[in-house]
Amino acid sequence: MKKYFCIILAVVFIFIFARVSSSYDRFVLFFSGEEQGALIPCGCFEGQLGGISRRDTLLNSYKKQGIFIIAVSTGDLIKSPGRQEEIKMGYLLNAMKEMDCLLHNLGEKDFEIGPQALSFASQTNGINFLSGNIEIISPFPIKYEKYLLKELSGFSVPVKIAFLSIISESVIDAHLLDFIRVYNPLKSLKPVLNHVKEKADLIVLVSHAPLEESIEIAESFPEIGLVISGHDIEEPAESLTYVNETPVISHGTEGKYVVIADYVVKNGKIKNKSVEAVPLEDKIEESEKMQLLLKQYQQTLKEEDLLNNIPKLPLEKGSSYIGSSVCGTCHKKVYTHWLDTSHQKAYTTLSDIGQQYDPECVNCHTDGFGYVSGFADYETHQNLAHVGCESCHGAGSNHLNNIGEPYGLADEKRCLECHNSDHSPKFQYENYWEKIKHPKEILSNISENTQ
Fold this sequence. Notes:
Distance between the termini: 122 Å
Helix content: 25-40%
Mean pLDDT: 89
Largest sheet: 6 strands, mixed
Number of strands: 14
Strand content: 15-25%
Strand order of the largest sheet: 4-3-2-1-13-14
CATH class of the largest domain: Alpha Beta
Low-confidence stretches: 8-23, 447-451
Number of domains: 2
C-alpha cells in the first residue's frame, strides 16, 4: 500500500512540475506621454492620430483578453504654463487614473505648471510621480519617488519590474532651476541600479531625454532591459533601435502613438516578444468613459469663462474689430461670396461638437480672438463669429475712415497662422486660395457707398 502511495505521489509531482515548467504568463507594458496638452486630435481634418479616448480603448482591448497590463506615463502632460494647461493636467491625470496608470515620470513641461499646482497634483491622484535625478526645492511638498518596484501578482512564478526615471539636463530651461536641481543621469542611475538589480527581474528606464542620450545610457548600463525615450521624435515607428539586446524606442509627442512592449514569463525567465510604437488611428473606437471626461473638460472651460479671461493684446491706436457684415456694406459682392465659403461656417463647426468654449479652438474660428475688441463670446460678439474679413485683413475700424489707403494686405503667411501642419497638413496655398478668393469689384460703387 505504501509502495502504491509513493508511486501516485511521484506521478502527481511529475505532472505538476511538468505543467509549471511548460506554462507561461504574459504581460504588456503600455507607455504613453508627451501629450503636451493634446487631449484629443483637434478634428480639423480626417485621419488625425491620438487622443485619450482611443488610448483607453486600446488599453482595454488587452485587459479584455485577460492579459496583465501596466500603463506608464512618460512625462510632459502640458506644453506651457497657464490656466487652460493647468485644467488639462487635472483631466489628463484623471484619465490616467481611470486607466489604472501606475506612474507618471515628471518632464520639464510638467514643472512649468509651478510647484504649488504640482504639489496638489502629486498628492491627490493616486498616481506615483517619478524623477530619479532631480531634487525639488519648494515650500509646497511634492510627492515623488526615485524609482518604483512593481510585483506582478497572480503569476505562476513571482515577477518584479523596476521602473527607473531620468530627465536630461539639456531639456531644462534656466528659469526652472529656481526650484529644481538636476543631476547627471549616469551618476544618478548607478546607485539606484546597484540597489534594484538583485531585486528586479526586469529593469525599465523612462528616459526623458533626446534619443541619442538614451542610447548612451543603455550602452553604459546593459542590465537595463528596456528604454522608453525621445524628445520631439517625428516618426516614432522608426525610432526603435537595439543596444545589444535592449530595445530603445519613443512614442513621439502629442499622444499620437503609444509604445507597447509584450513579454512572456516562461520557466521563470522573462522574454520580450515584441516592442513597437502603435499609432492611435481613427479606426480605433472612442471610449465612452473618456468621451464623458472630455465633455466635462469642455464644461469646465465654459464655467471658468476662459474665453473672456485670457489676456487681450492691444491694437494700434484707434483700431477695433467691426465684423464682416459692416465690411459688406461697401463690399457687397465680396461679402456675398464669403457667405458661401467654409470660412463663414468656421464657428459652427465648433459649436456643433461642443468645443465653442475652448480658447485653443476658438482662436482660429473667429475674428480677433485674443485682441482687445475681438471675439470673446458668441452672446456679445456674434458679428465676429466665423473666419471673416478681419481674420485675414486685420481690425477694420480705421479702414472706414481711410478708404483710399492700402489696408490689411493678406498673403500666404497669414493663412499659415491657422492652416499649419498640425491643423491643415494638406494645405496648399494656390488650391485653397481659389476657394475663397474675392470676386472683382467695381471701385466706383464702393466709393459711392462711403459718401
